[in-house]
Structure of Molybdopterin-dependent oxidoreductase:
Amino acid sequence: MTSTVHTFCRYCMASCGLEVTVEGNRITKIAPDKQNPHSWHDFCAKGRTANQLVEHPRRILAPMRRVGDGYVEATWDEAIRDIADRMNALIDADGPDAIGAYYGNPSGHSSSNVMFMSAWMDAIGTRSRFAVGSVDQNALHVVAEAMFGSALMVPVSDVDNCDYFLLIGTNPAVSAWNWLETVPGGWQRALNRQREGATIVVVDPVRTESAEKADVHLAVRPGQDWALLLAVVKVILDERLEHTTDCRDLATGVDDLRALVAEADLDDLSTRCGLDRTVIERTARDFATARRAMVVTRTGISLHAAGTVGEWLGQVLNVITGRMDRPGGRRFEPGYFDALRLAELAKTKPHVSRVAGREMVAGAHALAELPDEILTPGPGQIRAMLINCGNPVISGPDGAKLDRALAQLDLLVVVDLVQRESHRHAHWLLPAQHWLERADLLAFTSNMHDEPFVQYGAKVVEPPPDTRPEWRMFVDLAIAMRRPLFGARGLNGFIRASRRVAAATRRPGLAFSPDWLDRLFVRMSRKYNGRRLTWRDLMANPHGIVLGPREFGHFRGALRTADKRVHAAPPEFVARARELLAEPGATAPDGYPFQLGNRRNRHSMNSWLNELPGLHRSGKRNDVLINTADAAELGIAAGDRVRVFSPIGEVELAAVLSDRPRRGLVVVDHGWGSRIFDPRGGAEPQSFGVNRNLLVGDEVDPLSQTSTLSSTYVGVERVDP
Ligand SMILES: Nc1nc2c(c(=O)[nH]1)N[C@H]1C(S)=C(S)[C@@H](COP(=O)(O)OP(=O)(O)OC[C@H]3O[C@@H](n4cnc5c(=O)[nH]c(N)nc54)[C@H](O)[C@@H]3O)O[C@H]1N2
Ligand SMILES: Nc1nc2c(c(=O)[nH]1)N[C@H]1C(S)=C(S)[C@@H](COP(=O)(O)OP(=O)(O)OC[C@H]3O[C@@H](n4cnc5c(=O)[nH]c(N)nc54)[C@H](O)[C@@H]3O)O[C@H]1N2
Ligand code: SF4
Ligand SMILES: [Mo]
């Protein structure tokens, strides 16, 4: 029997609407859902081939326990019992921090995963929490918290009304317009605006696919956007080009900004960022005087030591030139559900890490600290880890050190679809479910859509019988460990009672599931046209519902700062900027004259779709992109084997010569070099390309604790054949 299901893709925040054809329980076709009123416009080959991961030949299909060098299948009862007993024994001996946990990017695309993982971490009381934010968007959280009062307050881009786009450290032509916002077809829409006369400026050390189409490409020195942005702010404030009303009424701290820029010298900043002073001045004037404009910042800024300062100054530009909450600028979308409020309730207690002595950011410690927290003996040492939706050996810094650390754990539990590099030492592999096998209603991201929109992400096929959703694993684990979910007494008993009732009455719907919370959040929804959203509305509209027009005027009221103003100059950011100004300009250390840049591929998703045949030609690897003039000096020709090395590691790849990267920058795609193991069949691991993060050390941006994945200095040499 053939049926059609409408849902949306949960690989990236573009959240493309999908029309999926199913025969029996098998997906035969995935196409864009052109009846989706909001979000199908970025539809790409990753979404089109998403069934390949569902049917991955090496997929983990039942809990698997390590025995010697291999794995054997076990029941869920055995798995949960064994993990619970071993974790409880470690907690009894060493305290709760002996149990560490890491959650990666895909966990955020599920409505229940992170919530119940947090419930479980709260249950056991561990503070050994690590998350993908420290290799991605922590700077955004830190800046949003300090300036707007909530780490989750992320203004969205009003692309269709913008006349001047200043895009910094982002390549939307490849990555889609997404970080913590969903702007469907954002890049195409920006190009449409360009055809209507808008200007697109791309700031990137590489002439990317996006930079190619831009009106202006500013090839900034890697890691020095803060200097460029400070210079732009300086020109605007010195020349009195700011938006006087917003600087007086909406924001506080503009005088502190004035004091800061008075100490900076334009020529010095220009030297630091490697861009001509006249170009900076022109950019500042054009941006400030454009009718409608926005700054958009992304991972190209955040993955550097000055990432938070860069992210902050990007938002400062939006604020001081009157772009917040105005057409063509950055708007606050309230969403159908108040995620900011929930985030306040779910706030993690502050904690200082044992070895590095650093605070948590956005509820977790930095991934860069994880190896030492495992390797350093003493009270609080991590002895067991749970990795949920993550591949931190590939995605995080110094993968070799993390791999060594993971190897020495008493217990490593992995929750994933496939066993990858970070999972090779796992004692237990717990089989998760693909988003095509589950329903999601993403209340937490409802204020990240660029128009008021909601869609119930329907389940398309039934999951393999012995796989489970993550929330269920966390609930069962907490119950088996006899530790109260969310740290709230009574909840475990309630869930168990609901399961007993469901079993006795043979009505599985009576057993607790996160579906209940989704329904509750819908019941709490904001009113549109005088009425609240209902569950029935959602079910009756499988393509999703545009709840109303884009509204302006919600920003001020949504601010969570005590004085309801934007804090334009949080003291810790100003102090850090002064520190950066006092440091001499960045210079390469002896023997490592190049900086290691980074790229994404349209057909890869971080470290996890590279092996799928529908996405990459067979034998596809990552290579190293070298500026043609640099290559000539090094005696490297196209196709040569090249060694790229840093003080902590080396990798070998084929050279591709190009004038796209700035001189002094070599670029290697991230996410490659992850082996794919075969726990069921026992076949040899497969591997594609090399992991460029093996070259990255544990340096972090001190304000956001984000790893400096895009600043590493490396040497480059030809490998003699
Ligand atoms: N050099 C460099 N490094 C980077 C970046 C960069 O730009 N440059 N980018 C960074 C960024 S932005 C990110 S987000 C991180 C990503 O870092 P991570 O999130 O740690 O790693 P991923 O590569 O996304 O791996 C995700 C894992 O989740 C599994 N998975 C997929 N769906 C599900 C699911 O529904 N349930 C479960 N349980 N598992 C699932 C996949 O099989 C895969 O093993 O990498 C960061 N690392
Ligand atoms: N196809 C595909 N799409 C994706 C993903 C994917 O893996 N594949 N990942 C998704 C995820 S998890 C995320 S977080 C987003 C990320 O979305 P983006 O942040 O747009 O990611 P990138 O395409 O890596 O673009 C980052 C750009 O920053 C540039 N850059 C590096 N260093 C600097 C610098 O110092 N200054 C400036 N100005 N630029 C610099 C790089 O050259 C690169 O072009 O993409 C999402 N979309
Ligand atoms: S992976 Fe592709 S299809 Fe899926 S949401 Fe992102 S852009 Fe859309
Ligand atoms: Mo990311």
In short: The CA atoms of residues 97 and 127 lie 6 Å apart. The mean pLDDT is 96. The chain is about 30% helix and 15% strand.
